[in-house]
Structures are given as C-alpha cells and as structure tokens.
C-alpha cells in the first residue's frame, strides 16, 4: 500500500517540498514528479524510515530546546528524553496523587506515558546513576527537568499511529554553560512502542505466505527452496537485495521485468548462483513428492490386504490363438450370443470383455484379436489375466500366431489351458495337436504333462461344459482372492471415444469395489465416474473385483494396458493426473537430442527435404486399434518414401482433423470409425483426402499404394517398329530417306533413332512421313515410305531407323 508524499513529510515533521526533493535524490520517485500529492511505493517505505529515523536520532541531542508552555495548577511535568529513533518528546502523565492539568494546548506528536512506565524509567535512571563499584569513574551528570507541554488524552486502539514529534528538547545547567557543553541525558530502556512501525501492506504477508521461500544450509552451500512462480519482489527479499537492484541485474542480462513479474527458472538460477545461493524450485509432482506418496501407499497396502478382508473373486480368462481358429466362435458359444458375425471380415479387432455365470460362479472372459497386427493387444490381454485358454484348430495345429500367443502366456506366467477346437471338422487330428504341444514343452496331462487339454467344438457346442469346469478347477487351485473393501484399482482393457458419452474405457477391477461417483486416475487422465455398464449394456452401481465394466466420465481416452486407481476426491485425481502429465512432458523434452549444426547435418537435412514423405492422420474407434494400425504402417519398410504419422487418436473424424490435414498436407485414414457431420464438404473444399477402412490388412495395402504413388514413375522403352534405308532423295532443304518398313510400324512424331551398324548416329523424332507423295500417320511392315528425322541429313544406304515410345510404369517400393 503506497503513501502520499505530504503524509510522509508530516510523519517526519518535514516540509512537503523538502521531502519531495529527498525522494527524488534517492530515486524513490520519478525525477519529473512535481506534486506532493504523488505517492511513494510501499517497497521504499522501510528504507525511508530507516534513513530518516536514524537522522532524527543523531540530530536529537544537538537540537534546540522545544519551549512549550502550559497553564496548569501544579508544577510542570518533567519530560524524559526519548532514546528510540524517530521519537519526539515524551510527556510523563501525572501520578494518581498529582493534580491533573486544567487547560492544555496540545502540540502534535506527543505520546503519553503511564505511571508504570514512569516508575520503570526512574528505576533505570537510578541504576544508571549508581553503577556497581568496579573501577573509579566520574559520576554521571544527572538530567535536568525541562518544561514541556501536557500530552493530549490517550488515543484509542483503532486510532492511526501518531506521527513523530519534533526533535527532543534539552536544558542547560550552570556547569554545562561554564564548560560550553550541553548536558548528556543518561540512557533509558528502549521503548519499542514509541517507534512508529514499518509500513507494510496486507498484500506483503499474503504474497510471502503464498510463495513461502526458505533457505537451508547444507555444508557450505546455501539452498533457496522456492515454489513457483519466482516473483521478482520475493526473490529480491530472499537474496537480500532491493527490488530495483535485482531489476538492474536482470536488465544487464537482457531480461526486462517488473517487481511483480515472475522469472524463468533458468534466469533465477543464474542470479542465485551469482549471489552464492543454489536455487531449488519445487514443482507439484516432483520426484520427492511422488516417492513420499509411493511410500505411503506401500505402508498402507499391507493393512488393506489383510487376510481377513480377502474374499474369492471370479477368474479372468483370456482366449488366445491363431486367426480363424475359432476363438470368437468358442466365446460366442459360451455366451450364447452372435459375436463373430459382427466383426469385419470375421476377424476380431478389439479386446472384448464379458462375464458369464456357470454352476453358480462367475467367470470373466477376454477375447483378443488374432491378426498379426494386434500383437500388443494380445500381449496386454495375457498380462492382466489369471488363466489363458489357447485355442488350436484340430485340423491346422499350431500356427505362427499360435506360437506367438503361447509366448505371451509364458512371459505373463499365467495358468494355461489348451482348447482343441473344430473337432467336428474333416481332417481333425487331436494326436497331432498333442504332438505339437509336446514339441513346444507343454505336454498334455494324458501324455504325462501338466497342461490341461480339452477337445471342443464351438459350432456344435460339445466339450464346453468340460472347458468351463477345468477353468473353475484351475481357479480353485490358484486361490484367487481380493479385498472388496480396499480402494478400487485395476487395468484399462480398452478405451474409445463414443458419440454422446465422450471418452469411455473398458476396465477390469482387480481390487476394491468400483462405484459410481468414485474419482479415478490413470496416468495423465482422470475420471469422475458418471456411469458404469456391464458387457450387456446394463447400468451398474458398483463393480466388485474381477468384474469387467465400461466406465464413463474420463477427461481423455486412457492408454490400454495402463493401471487405474481410486483416490479420495476429484481434486486429488486432477492433481495427480497433472503431475503425471508434467512428468511425461519433462521426459519427452529430455528425450529430444541436442541439435547438431554441423555441415554433415545440414546436407542430411537438405536430403531429407527432397525425400518423398507420406503424412497420415489416423483416427480409430478404440485405442487398441490405433496401436495396431500404427504397427502395421511402421512395418512397411522402404527407403524410397518416408511414412510420417502426424497423429493417431481415438474418435470420429472431425473438422479439426481436416484443418490439420490441410495445414500439414496429410491424408486422413480412418479405421472402424465414422465421419462427423460436415466433414465431407470441408475436406472437398480443402482438397483433403479421407480413406476409411474396416479391415486392417486392407488399410495396410492401400497405404503402401499411396506411398508408391508418391514416387516418380519408372520409364520403360517400348519398340514400335524399324525401317531400313534403301535410298536417299535430295530436297530443297536437305535429304529424305527412302525406307522399307521391316518390322512393326513407323509412326509420325514418334521418337526414333538412326543406327549405323551398332553405333547410334542420331536420336530425334519422325518429323515427316510420306507414302509416295501423300503424308501418312503410320506405315506398317512391308511397305515403303519416305522418312525425315528432324533436321538430320546424313542418311546412308543400309542405315536402320528404329521407332519407339516411352511408357511410364508405376514405381514399386
């Protein structure tokens, strides 16, 4: 809070113009300031008070006595010289046995002392006059009372502090007059309340509390702990500088900042090092905070996982196998629902999570894609489950993707059950499948191994009950349990953007009970659960452990395979998500290599700009499909064309995607998704190409073709015909070759070359072609004609004129 110059002058008993001149001299106000009504910033008040208070304290003994008369009925009240800097004459109030004054004329700036204050000061004077006898010293000169004015009544508590009084009065004594010196008053105990307090605005305390910088010393290093933002005013205070001094240093560094502006961390660090400090800026989400939170969770976990709270939970079963071996058909037979018919091309392209009930117990199933592009989705499905059912076709046996799925199961270290499907198909050979299992180190039980093997037929429904019984038996052996009373936590199976619902995630609850209204956090995304649905689309109020559920209320589509957890409230979830987003941003920034400015790098950049690049914007229905599409496209290996994926997101193709594609020169590729209203005319207006696909391998083939289209076509020479020169005929402007067409045909304006033996004498075009005296467009084999090639005249009998055309052939990668 600022103060006006005339008020400040009154506080120190100065003329307004003198105070203005002083402030200009010190640089506390602008040089062009003319009015005493102008204000002085609060940051200079402390400096002014220290300087002027010290001057008043020094000038007080040498000042002339202030003569002030009052008319009273008693003796004048003695005045004690004040010792606190900046104080005026202090008038002692009369004791109860003294008579109060009748009339008082009150000068400004007089402070009244109570009787208790007077008694304490008298004791101090006695102690000063009678020191302990240690060594002989001259006795101090006792002070002489002087006349002073009676003080006004004591001010109220809410009244503003009085301004300082005039310089302290002094009295003369005969001894002092003879010596030519003024008597010196003995020192009195300081009275802090007599000094006006430093002027501070309420905002100072507020800002310091919000920033809360602290300084710690570790050995010889002084560390400043600061919470962002690093404001110039607060930073100067911690460094022991005045704000304008810090601003001056910043200007020397090329940084122009005001006292309320925040500094960049790098600049603040340099300033701190210059003054012998080490700056440590503590952000939300720093490693120390995360480690502390992780430690708290680890100490809390044993309590939550107390054995008395554990109850059996449904097993989570994943179905894996080669494409078209009947995984989805098997799950379809178990669920009694037509799932495979709804998949494009009969290929599962998403992870489906379902739950059934068998013999009064629940089982959760995951159906993973079988196509090679969905490798990561299969690996993710195997890593979050308890039991893996490996489906092998009885007529095909183990295939490459079957071995790949088996590798995922073994890496995840989950229980394995082999379901030999298609037992009703002609050519089914169960023993051959068991032999394949023996070769891969998973011998079946009836061959002396430990792998449960169940022959089934998804189309006829045989062997399904035995398979479900084996799954429940394996779950009993594993003793699957969870604590439903703990905070909910689990794994994201799949995520997508759904029209009207926003980001939606399919989750498996692994511990605790997920309820509507819970606050969840998953990496940089968080959710306030608005609704929970089961695999049939029915609304749920809660989802116990082992239950698949679709959760609505996310701020963004979380990554598939990521873990989520429930926290206290939405604010904590938002803070944790923000901290993780900042961490990921720092990691991404640290991963960017330093720029190489060498000549070799310059030429490499020039070559890169000349290389053909296909830019793509990928939009898919679910997160797992985006991963699969990216894997397919990254699998296209070529050095002729560079494939750049500008973005790969989940949801509809929007107008923003079209604008981004127009700005970056990209092609939009959609997989199992749709277009937003108005996208088609906008794409036509901006000449943006949009390709939509439902089957992933068709998408890969089309992208390969688009990459090939960027290459320059290959040039292929195709021979049209040949003619032998039999004679030459002079013309007015040269010669014409009389020829016999020996093969093919000779076409006017076609490319031609003249061969003389093995040597090519001339290359050009057929400028003129005549059949006798008539012009001809073409002459076929066995006929004679006259040929003139451009301006060439050096024909010889026996030369061969070849006619050909250049064809453009599509380049290949």
Task: Provide structural commentary.
The chain is an alpha+beta fold. The strands form ten sheets. The protein has a six-stranded mixed beta sheet with strand order 13-14-12-15-16-17, sandwiched between helices. Strands 19-20-26-23-22-27 form a six-stranded antiparallel beta barrel. It has a six-stranded antiparallel β-barrel with strand order 32-33-38-35-34-39. Strand 6 and strand 7 form a beta hairpin. Helix 18 packs across helix 21 (696-709).
Overall mean pLDDT stands at 75
The biggest sheet amounts to: 6 strands, mixed
Low-pLDDT windows of residues: 62-104, 133-211, 298-304, 337-342, 345-350, 370-374
Number of discrete helical segments: 21
Kindly report how far apart the N and C termini lie.
73 Å
- Coarse structural class: alpha+beta
> What share of residues is helical?
25-40%
